[in-house]
Design a protein that fits this description.
Blueprint (H helix, E strand, L loop, with lengths): L1 H36 L2 E7 L9 H6 L3 E7 L18 E2 L14 E2 L1 H5 L11 E6 L15 E7 L4 E2 L2 E2 L8 E3 L9 E3 L3 E13 L6 E4 L10 E3 L7 E6 L1 H9 L4 E6 L14 E2 L3 H4 L6 H4 L3
Antiparallel strand pairs: 1-2, 3-4, 5-14, 6-11, 6-15, 7-8, 9-10, 10-16, 11-14, 12-13
Length: 293
């Protein structure tokens, strides 16, 4: 009997300790949640009236928008926690002052007035070209990308005289007794433009369609529209360059997709090569690129 009583006593002690531990954990969890709710968080607040359509940049400069601290549990959904998240946008509603700014209160100008022209950089115009899937980098080009535009054509001027167009308008080779020989490009291409900014693909400007909630760390994310696929590529260029692009509309246009840090470099026109790079055993990549430097 004594052994049984001992086991019962031990069991009661263990159950009591477990209950005490669970109670303590629950109390601490409640306290932590209470502490988090009472934390002061820095958010963007309207300090005075802001009319619908007003620029956020002007409001920031005029101190109609300011960074202030608010209790976390008093904040609305999706509060804006830094000026950078609304810079370049306009007020979507009239603000009377005192409101905590949320992601829906400031939107791109195009979302407010329906005009696409606000997406253009100053001094540029929009012009659209048509390319098939192969010439358009298989649909990988998206709004905001940096591209080069090449013009491919037949019949080039040689020595000041108009060259005749070949039957196949393709690669031609001057044969030698030993084989090989110089290569003449029957359909040479030239870099028409470099470093061109893509404004839209089809009718998609690629702008965010919904704002996501702001994470604890203060970063914001956005849900973007699915990648656009269309043979219509709209780019922005200065008016004179847009005129040149339209002037070569009869040429076959090809696009190259560039890295964001791409820098235009001189690329001279050529339609004659002593040999093809693959035949010469020459890598198309510079030595520093091949070594990853």
């Amino acid at each position: 009997m004594s052994s049984r009583r001992t086991l019962i006593l031990i069991g009661a002690v263990v159950i009591g300790a477990l209950a005490a531990f669970l109670t303590l954990s629950y109390v601490r969890g409640v306290e932590n949640r209470s502490d988090e709710a009472g934390q002061m968080v820095e958010v963007v607040v309207a300090t005075g009236p802001i009319a619908k359509g007003s620029s956020s940049d002007a409001a920031i400069q005029g101190q109609q928008l300011a960074m202030e601290k608010r209790r976390r549990d008093d904040l609305p959904a999706n509060p804006v926690r830094r000026f950078a998240d609304i810079q370049g946008q306009v007020a979507a509603v009239d603000l009377g002052g005192g409101e905590v700014i949320t992601a829906s209160m400031f939107v791109p100008a195009t979302a407010l007035n329906g005009s696409k022209s606000a997406s253009l950089d100053k001094g540029n115009v929009a012009v659209t070209i048509t390319v098939d899937e192969a010439a358009g980098v298989a649909g990988l080009v998206q709004p905001g990308d940096n591209i080069n535009i090449l013009a491919n054509y037949c019949g080039v001027a040689t020595g000041g005289a108009a060259g005749g167009e070949s039957d196949t308008c393709s690669l031609q080779r001057q044969n030698t007794p030993a084989g090989g020989g110089a290569v003449q490009l029957g359909t040479p291409s030239s870099y028409l433009f470099q470093g061109v900014k893509v404004l839209a693909v089809g009718q998609s400007l690629g702008q965010p369609v919904a704002a996501a909630s702001t994470p604890e760390g203060g970063d914001t994310t956005a849900t973007t529209a699915p990648p656009a696929t269309s043979p219509l590529i709209t780019v922005q260029l200065p008016p004179q360059q847009a005129q040149l692009l339209v002037s070569v509309r009869d040429a076959s246009l090809y696009l190259t997709l560039n890295r964001p840090d791409y820098t235009p470099v001189p690329i001279p026109f050529t339609n004659n090569l002593p040999a093809l790079p693959g035949e010469a055993g020459v890598s198309p990549y510079p030595a520093e690129a091949a070594t990853g430097q």
